[in-house]
């Protein structure tokens, strides 16, 4: 890995949110590819997760690493996003009830927006009713994206999809799911229309579903 990109990744792991924007900008100025920087930052969060699992760090350290990652993504955003022209229609996205993880969901929202959707981001810990109300208030919505990062919130994902599947608007929307513990098998089991493993493939799939 290029040493500047490595420095960005190291500083995400250390949670150096004050310097990260400058480091990302320096890497971009030196000609580093924005997607490569992003992938290194995503891998860095994986390293953070591994350290947490091994009890080498705790929740506060995960939180400051997440803050650093977000600051870095802000600088990358204009370099990753397309022109954002709304050609595919509207999408609603959120992290399911009980789950506070939003970095992956934000990346998915960003990629889908830049692929040509108008994105309504409901944030994290989103109750089922909020998804339903927002879809009812936006009858032109084409896709609903649900993110879950914890094995303990997979049931909330299942319940949210079930509520959408039983709603009278079901035939007018497509339901996409994702997040680290989610698999194609689980998505099929709970009756979602699509599962994707990462933000770039989520954007591709969204275009396919909206076409
Ligand atoms: Co938490 N956490 N966390 N955490 N955290 C994990 C997920 C964990 C794997 C760490 C570990 O143990 N190794 C573990 C879950 C274990 C499990 O479920 N079996 C865990 C835990 C246990 C917890 C707490 C329970 C810890 C505690 O309190 N004891 C707690 C739960 C809080 C809650 O949600 N109720 C908790 C809290 C937190 C913080 C708040 C401190 C912080 C989140 C801050 C934030 O998001 N604003 C945090 C973090 C940072 C992590 C790790 C380290 C990093 C997550 C991340 O941002 N990854 C994570 C470890 C890991 O992932 N290896 C971990 C980078 C991001 C780009 O990837 O989110 O996977 P990801 O998104 C990807 C894909 O999954 C996919 O595309 C994205 C981009 O390519 N994707 C979709 C995501 N959503 C999609 C939707 C789609 C399609 C694709 O369609 C709609």
Automatic annotation (TrEMBL):
CDD domains: corrinoid_protein_B12-BD. Coiled coil: none annotated. The keyword Metal-binding applies. Residues 1-88 form the B12-binding N-terminal domain. InterPro entries: Cbl-bd_cap (IPR003759), Cobalamin-bd (IPR006158), Cobalamin-bd_sf (IPR036724), Met_Synthase/Corrinoid (IPR050554), Meth_synthase_dom (IPR036594). GO terms for biological process: homocysteine metabolic process; tetrahydrofolate metabolic process. PROSITE patterns: B12_BINDING, B12_BINDING_NTER. Residues 88-211 form the B12-binding domain. The keyword Ligase does not apply. Gene3D superfamilies: Cobalamin-binding domain (3.40.50.280), Methionine synthase domain (1.10.1240.10). GO terms for cellular component: cytosol. GO terms for molecular function: cobalamin binding; metal ion binding; methionine synthase activity. Keywords: Cobalt, Metal-binding. Pfam families: B12-binding, B12-binding_2. Belongs to the methylamine corrinoid protein family. This is Corrinoid protein. It comes from Candidatus Blautia merdavium.
């Amino acid at each position: 890995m290029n040493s500047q990109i490595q420095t960005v990744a190291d500083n995400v792991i250390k949670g150096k949110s004050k310097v990260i924007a400058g480091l990302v900008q320096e890497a971009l100025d030196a000609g580093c590819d924005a997607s490569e920087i992003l992938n290194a930052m995503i891998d860095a969060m994986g390293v953070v997760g591994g350290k947490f699992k091994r009890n080498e760090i705790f929740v506060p350290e995960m939180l400051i690493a997440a803050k650093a990652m977000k600051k870095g993504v802000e600088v990358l955003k204009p370099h990753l996003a397309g022109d954002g022209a709304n050609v595919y229609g509207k999408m609603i996205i959120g992290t399911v009830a009980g789950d506070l993880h939003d970095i992956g969901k934000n990346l998915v929202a960003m990629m889908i927006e830049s692929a040509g959707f108008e994105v309504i981001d409901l944030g994290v810990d989103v109750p089922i009713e909020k998804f339903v109300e927002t879809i009812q208030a936006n009858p032109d919505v084409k896709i609903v994206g649900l993110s879950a990062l914890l094995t303990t919130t997979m049931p909330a994902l299942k319940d949210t999809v079930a509520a959408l599947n039983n709603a009278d608007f079901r035939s007018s929307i497509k339901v996409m799911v994702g997040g680290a513990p989610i698999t194609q098998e689980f998505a099929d089991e709970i009756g979602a229309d699509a599962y994707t493993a990462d933000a770039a493939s989520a954007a591709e799939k969204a275009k396919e579903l909206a076409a």
